[in-house]
Automatic annotation (TrEMBL):
Species the sequence originates in: Arachis hypogaea (Peanut)
All copies of domain Gfo/Idh/MocA-like oxidoreductase N-terminal, residue ranges: 4-117
GO molecular function, one term: nucleotide binding
Highest taxon above the source species: Eukaryota
GO cellular component: cytoplasm
Classification via PANTHER family: NAD(P)-BINDING ROSSMANN-FOLD SUPERFAMILY PROTEIN (PTHR42840:SF5), NAD(P)-BINDING ROSSMANN-FOLD SUPERFAMILY PROTEIN-RELATED (PTHR42840)
GO biological process, one term: NADPH regeneration
Family that this chain belongs to: Belongs to the Gfo/Idh/MocA family.
Pfam families, A to Z: GFO_IDH_MocA, GFO_IDH_MocA_C3
Gene3D superfamilies referenced in this protein's UniProt entry, alphabetically: Dihydrodipicolinate Reductase, domain 2, NAD(P)-binding Rossmann-like Domain
Name of the protein: Gfo/Idh/MocA-like oxidoreductase N-terminal domain-containing protein
Occurrences of domain GFO/IDH/MocA-like oxidoreductase (ranges): 148-263
Length: 355
């Protein structure tokens, strides 16, 4: 059984990670939770104690070093401010621990390139292969998994639409998050990687170029808070990505129009939390299915499974869950950065960095 530690004790750890991990607590042993401050670490451990026994409270540099030196801890979940995650992840990888890092994979393409270079060096020197995963739960949402299968039924793609009307206002627990406000791209980058991940998964190919316009309308949010982009896929199809960070009418929608029908995924249905998947055929008939949220649990389960099976020695090829790979997370960031760059250049065509 894998023994893991959680690096971070913020809102997402307390409200998402710990409840979801408790659903699969029979698959691993949670040994420690770390935070910069003792107060924050203790608050998270108190929540963990409801479902896990003997969780150690670690904080500060000394606590982080304890986790690094503890050979019984085989994997860590790094759930920190976006600007700090890569450095901590690389430290843990260098110590021989598998890492599940929260999205985004990095703050920029430049940071991604440096991170991948360092990971390659660490892997070359490691006595066994270490896994670096990015926790992108949208790649594990049952609705999007189903859509990946159904998209073949609509035939040749003609158009793709991704419409996001977010609800990032003062009632949202992440609204005051300082690190998200410190990101270039602000909430568009942090939130947007989810929807790009969903796009790439459903269409089954990469975004090669984009042209976008951005604006800053809501002064309570960091710039930009609106983006409208045309994108071109490697399969020859084009589409639009429209994102409003804070809207009075929250909406999340992917829609793919093909020669033989249309596939649509929309968040929420009659007050339920999840996604409604609708397939419209050429005969005018349609069929719809509702899928509750479960992506966070499924991604955590997949990572723990990878860690439990990672017994191969240096030089062996560990086949980890591809949806969790750091490269996939890097590709999501690269698309968003290209859109933001195009917006800064007033719609100039920008080619997406390939990873």
């Amino acid at each position: 059984m894998a023994t893991i530690a959680i690096i971070g004790a913020g809102i997402f750890v307390r409200t998402q990670y710990l409840p979801r991990l408790s659903e699969i607590s029979d698959l691993f042993h949670l040994k420690a939770i770390w935070s910069r401050t003792q107060e924050s670490a203790r608050a998270a451990v108190e929540i963990a104690d409801k479902n896990f026994s003997g969780v150690q409270c670690k904080w500060g540099d000394e606590g982080l070093d304890d986790i690094i030196r503890d050979s019984s801890i085989t994997a860590v979940a790094v759930v920190l401010a976006g600007q700090n995650q890569v450095d901590i992840s690389l430290k843990m990888l260098k110590a021989g621990k598998h890492v599940l890092q929260e999205k985004p994979a990095a703050a920029s393409v430049k940071d991604l390139e440096t991170a991948l270079h360092n990971y390659k060096s660490i892997s070359a020197d490691a006595p066994r292969q270490v896994i670096w995963s990015v926790a992108e739960n949208y790649r594990f949402e049952p609705a999007l998994v189903e859509c990946k299968k159904l998209v073949a039924e609509i035939g040749t793609m003609m158009s793709v639409q991704v419409i996001i009307e977010g609800s990032m206002n003062s009632s949202n627990p992440y609204f005051s998050s300082s690190w998200r406000r410190g990101f270039t791209g602000g909430f568009i980058l942090d939130m947007g990687v989810h929807f790009i991940a969903g796009l790439r998964m459903v269409v089954g190919c990469e975004v090669v170029s984009v042209s976008a316009m951005t604006s800053h309308v809501d002064s309570s949010l960091p710039p930009p808070d609106n983006i409208s982009s045309v994108f071109h896929l490697e399969n020859g199809c084009s589409g639009v990505f429209v994102m409003v960070v804070s809207s009075r009418t929250p909406k999340i929608l992917w829609r793919v129009v093909g020669m033989n029908g249309t596939l649509q995924i929309e968040r929420g249905f009659q007050g339920q939390h999840g996604y409604l998947v609708s397939l419209y055929g050429v005969d005018g008939q349609s069929k719809s299915s509702f899928f509750p949220f479960s992506g966070v649990t499924e991604e955590l389960k997949a990572f723990i499974s990878d860690v439990s099976e990672s017994t191969l020695k240096k030089g062996s090829e560990l086949v980890a869950e591809p949806r969790l790979s750091y490269i996939e997370g890097a590709r999501d960031v690269a698309v968003l950065e290209a859109m933001l760059e195009s917006g800064a250049r007033k719609g100039e065509l920008v080619h997406v960095k390939r990873f």
